Amino acid sequence: MECKVSWLGQDGMGFVAETGSGHIVAMDGAPEGGGHNLAPRPMEMVLLGTGGCTAYDVVLILKKSRQEVHGCSVVLKAERASEDPKVFTKIHFQFTVTGRNLNPATVERAIKLSHDKYCSASIMLSKTAELTHGFDIVDA
After folding, report:
1. Do residues 65 and 117 share a domain?
2. Residue 51 maps to which CATH number?
3. Same structural domain for residues 50 and 106?
4. For 73-109, how does the pLDDT look when each residue is reduced to its tens digit (9 = 90+)?
5. Which of 16, 36, 122, 126 is deepest in the core (most CB within 10 A)?
6. SS3 for the chain, per residue?
7. Are residues 59 and 94 in the same domain?
């Protein structure tokens, strides 16, 4: 896996990242840090990447478990250390899984498997942060 991150220039703290798969993502800093608030912060990208990683796992595991899943979203709420390096110290993942006749035990198992075995991002973040999760099931 590879990516390239390039600074956009002297007048701010904007960056553009090009992924190995050919996609472009913009990042920017807060105004108090010299940015223009035109794109997500780099640490927000870490958090959203983690959410994507675990949601991907949960959907895949539920499909393989023959659950009729129609939707999956996860809200991540994180706290960071007050001193540098400002690592994540706590992250709560709140999943909403939509489907027909979803088994709560299977949903819980899918989330735990993602966090404990498959989601590389959350497993890395668990080295500095306390990870917790909850879930709601919406019958569709």
Report:
1. yes
2. 3.30.300.20
3. yes
4. 999 999 999 999 999 999 999 999 999 999 999 999 9
5. 122
6. CCEEEEECCCCCCCEEEEECCCCEEEECCCHHHCCCCCCCCHHHHHHHHHHHHHHHHHHHHHHHCCCEEEEEEEEEEEEECCCCCCCEEEEEEEEEEEEECCCHHHHHHHHHHHHHHHCHHHHHHCCCCEEEEEEEEEEC
7. yes
